[in-house]
Amino acid sequence: MADQKLKGRRTMVNLLMFQVVLSASLHVCFAEIGHGQPPRNISTVHPVDVNSFGSSVYLPVSGNVHPIGSYSVTVVIGNPPKQFQLDIDTGSDFAWVQCDPCEGCTLPPDRRYKLGTNKYVLCKDPICAAFHPPNPSQCINNPKQKCSFKVEYADHGSAAGVVVSDSFPLRLVNGTVFQPRLAFGCAYTLKNPDPSSAAIAGVLGLGRSKASISAQLSSMGVSQNIIGHCFNDKGGFLSFGANFVPKSGMTWAPMLRSSSDNYYSLGPAEVFYHTKPTGIKGLNVIFDSGTTYTYLNSGAYGSLLNAIRKYLIGKPLHEVKDGALPICWKGGKPIISLRDVQDYFGILAFSFFGSSNIQLQLPLEAYLIVTEQKNVCLGILNGTENGLGTLNMIGDISMQGKLMIFDNENQRIGWASADCTRKFG
Ligand SMILES: *[C@@H]1O[C@H](CO)[C@@H](O)[C@H](O)[C@H]1NC(C)=O
Ligand SMILES: *[C@@H]1O[C@H](CO)[C@@H](O)[C@H](O)[C@H]1NC(C)=O
Ligand SMILES: *[C@@H]1O[C@H](CO)[C@@H](O)[C@H](O)[C@H]1NC(C)=O
Description:
CATH superfamily of the largest domain: Acid Proteases
Radius of gyration: 21 Å
Bound molecules: 2-acetamido-2-deoxy-beta-D-glucopyranose
Structural class: mainly beta
CATH topology of the largest domain: Cathepsin D, subunit A, domain 1
Helix content: 10-25%
Oligomer: single chain
Number of helices: 7
Number of strands: 28
Distance between the termini: 41 Å
Largest sheet: 14 strands, mixed
Shape: globular
């Protein structure tokens, strides 16, 4: 069903308003200040600064890919403090919450953010530019005006309002409770909010912009602008700072910086299915935790589907219609878990920079789901059909079971297999 496919999608469409798997030993690494490791064989990436500063923030994550369709954290904002559940989104730029008053908001007024006095961010404040598209002309001419924001998502939802700054208490892993004032959006207008996540108060945008909570904490010297997330079928965790970067066991690749948007991207990739080339080459992908499933452009999607169907020849599965997702298979017996089909599917691998050392390997759970109808379905969708054009997105499903690190201090992205059950503090 169309709405289910789009569930949890929170990719920011560039706002033209004016316009190898290794086991990471996480337990060992938590207590250390991560200096990380220079990536293997990529000379353009700088090794981590040994003078790494600050502490780190750790937040437990709730959610799953199916049936919830998104991962979220609960943060506390304001004085008196109030809790807000925010959708984690590496595909957009900054945090926003539903505000009072609001048109189209899903939360009851008492659970929304209340704007007090002296909390507006003004146009003249340097942080305002990071909330705006490249040409904030309105703001330049009216420095004393309130800074406004608007985000549009690929699922046609949008949020608009004003930028505010308020106390954002965070427990640091060194034991300190820090109360920085951080800038975020206070949404007055919501369009097409995701009806399936009515408890979600807003979005925690963690893209490469200077407006993300992580970037703001870094500019204050609290923690480095290094975002880590680890998702599994029961939730997982989110971190800001260097403490959660394992010193070894990570596969690292330099992030693309040339693009005009703030996506985390790597490219180009060649795609293999069960170690055999699928014919997909030169694929640019972005990592988007705000998207439930993985999307490939029409050509790549077709090639992957061919490779999987070919691999299934002679295996006891046949394609069926299942309302959950477009491509599904039925077994001789009802499928209860992916273990029931582990011999029938292969590992999907994205190889970056022409290097077999820099591979993002997706085991079955990172691209298949078992449905209520006891079928197995492909969690990789046709992006072209879903209005994404040529964009290729690695969504939540494919990042499950991995510690993913978006290291903005050193302009690199890293990953390692992990169970993501680590509790902290
Ligand atoms: C990087 O890999 C290439 C080809 O695999 C190899 O020739 C080169 O020596 C490697 N460089 C380093 C620094 O390991
Ligand atoms: C914890 O880290 C913060 C941010 O770097 C720092 O301000 C604070 O002094 C540290 N606290 C301790 C107990 O080290
Ligand atoms: C993907 O979607 C496009 C656009 O709707 C369509 O033309 C194409 O046939 C689809 N590809 C596959 C393999 O279904």
